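As described in the Methods, two query proteins were run sequentially through the folding procedure within a single session, without resetting any intermediate state between them. The first query and its resulting structure tokens are shown here.
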Amino acid sequence: ARWTPQSPRLPPWPPSLEPPEPVAMDAALCRELLDGLSRLVAGRMPESKGIPVVDVFPAGAPPTPGEPTTLVCRVENVFPPDVEVTWRLDGVPVTRGVTHTHYTPTADLAFTRFSYLRAAPAAGQVVTCAVTRQGDNSSVVALW
């Protein structure tokens, strides 16, 4: 017996399907877009960012209005570890009596940071802890 190479006898293209020519053109366009976008983003790593979760509370027993106390601003879900923590008392920036901790890694691959404010807020005064990520034009705010 002798083997003769030939194309298989396939049934005709079903009329309800898109003809192969436009599909081939779409595939070529997709390849061009993929190549162009791949060159554009080559060497760039997408950066994941966590939205900080902020909470303010007294360090010890509930404070007496007008008495010195330490307020804690806990900032969680920080990634990357590059945030600015600021305090305000009735809308006025406060820098005296403020200390910050280093970033502490967490099990979920983010970071936590604490900031402390030693102050004596009077009854009715609003204390604000604001957290801003580098490069962002918005802050996450917690009130006490």
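Immediately afterward, the second query was submitted; its sequence and tokens are:
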Amino acid sequence: MSCIFGFIAIILIENFPASSCEQAQTEIVDNWNSGFKGKISINLNNDVTGGWTMILSFPVAVLNLQLWRAKIVGNQNDRVFTLKNMPWNAQMSEGVFELFFLAQKAVPKDSAPIGNVVFRRGVPATSYPSTTSPSSPQQSTGGSSSSSSRTNLPSASPPSTSRLSSLQPITNCSSLPPPKTTNSATAKPTTASPPNPGKYDYAQVLKLSILFYEAQRSGKLPSKNRVPWRKDSALNDRGENGEDLSGGWYDAGDYVKFGFPMASSATVLAWGLIEYKKAYEVAGQYELMLDSIKWATDYLIKAHTKKEEFYGQVGDGHLDHAYWGRPENMTMARPAFKITPEKPGTDLAAETAAALAAASIAFKARNTQSSKAYAETLLRHAKELFAFADKYRGVYSDSISNAADFYRSYSGYKDELVWGAIWLYRATKDTSFLSKATRYYNEFGMNGQAWAFSWDDKKAGVQLLLAALTKKATYQSAIQSSLDSWLPGGSVTYTPKGLAWRAKWGSNRYAANTAFLALVAADQGFRPASYREFAKKQIHYMLGDSGRSFVVGFGHNPPQRPHHSSSSCPSAPAPCDWSNFHDPSPNAHVLKGALVGGPDQNDNYTDDRTNYVTNEVATDYNAGFQSAVAGLEQLRLNDAGAS
């Protein structure tokens, strides 16, 4: 195995003498044939204001340098890189600043090169002195996380290895004189920048999660497609009479378009945008988020081919799961399945009505002529679908039997019928919908403690929305009972490291969904301190408090092998088949922002592509998670006094 050399970090601070240097620790956290991973930790003795710059230099060329906590603003011969702060970290509090990066080696199988770092406060990096490399390397092997602002990782990714980190404290930084600063313009913090992001950069997580949904897109991709390894696919998805059913999201690591979880995901994402619009705006993701929701709702509108007809699935789950490859190369049959008056699907139609109604609120709030017109279109389809759901009763997975093996509606249709009525009331203010919701709530016995909030079970969401809309004690006590069961000491099991663990399949998903509900409930005045603390701990567990990140492309030691077919495939024209499924190497592409299923009840988790229970991703996994992250970000902004 080739050696891994430690980086020497030399820290220069503007307005301080050269002998007064801050300490850095550098770490090579992974090394493989074609590339390596590095981490720089700078111990800031006091607050950084006015921005910062950094020079990262190597004795040999390195390719495709990737990082996301700094911008690359200069590159000299792939050896000397000028880095500048991001808008959100121009000001940093004293403490440890960490920056991860990835790079490819110019010559595969070479040792990871020794690097130097020069860090400066508020000075444009234009004339830095050259730096020399130390003569005593540190050896280490190991695996860790990376953070990247691009889509493609090095072409050959590292194998799974045990972590043996190498830390090298640097104290002799006085040996290098400070650079001259002729005509230097100190970078000023922009007043529009958000406050310090805190322990985890929620805004970055929002950006990555939106990218995950873009990676799930089916159909004709836009010219502004931001996931370069994804191309047009399934353009010929059609209904029984040739109806265009292209578009929408692929459900998970496969390529079926399951309408029920897709609609549920769209509802929860739209709900999060309605509640936490400011978080998306400050993160610069508001328009992208609307576009993300619209990709799903455009498809749901297409699938509503008649007032009393809706296509709830495209693709045969059994045929689809026999295929491992790119969606662009699919050749198997993709039949479409629909609900009709003769084959009803109350739950599916009512959930889709909820999604379109919630989205109509989000688009109406954008307050442009086109967005308000689109909101009206959404609302028209929502009303028709709810009427269809209410008139013809039945469980959709009984009518679409192919869905039963994958997304059977175990909770039945009653919760969705109440759910759809509530969202239509919220979108229209028509009290007939509220009357129907409250009547069905009592008739269907929805007052009991909810098991979990998910694509299948809306009871807790129903309780929360009715509590918020009516302010009545019966709904308030119901939602508090449901949420209290998730708090420490309640009926929900906790893992040793603190995840509220409901079930093995998608364990992160249930905790994230409940975290979102808890944040919304806290905003309504229900146990705000307890519910916000619960939500924060659950989301932080997934972001890294567990000892690793469960979000692909984010934080410390994120998953590299999610059960996700398209990201496991190398770029065309290279072949992709079941050999890629069994390949122990990391996925060829980073599925940025995807939340994997999660650990078992003892916090055990293996980054194994073949384990679809703990390591698959899905549109419904990210929906509640993303909305909870938006809630935490808005709470942070409010606490910081951001306007």
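Confidence is low (pLDDT under 50) at residues 1-21, 125-194. We note this only descriptively and draw no conclusion about the first query from it.
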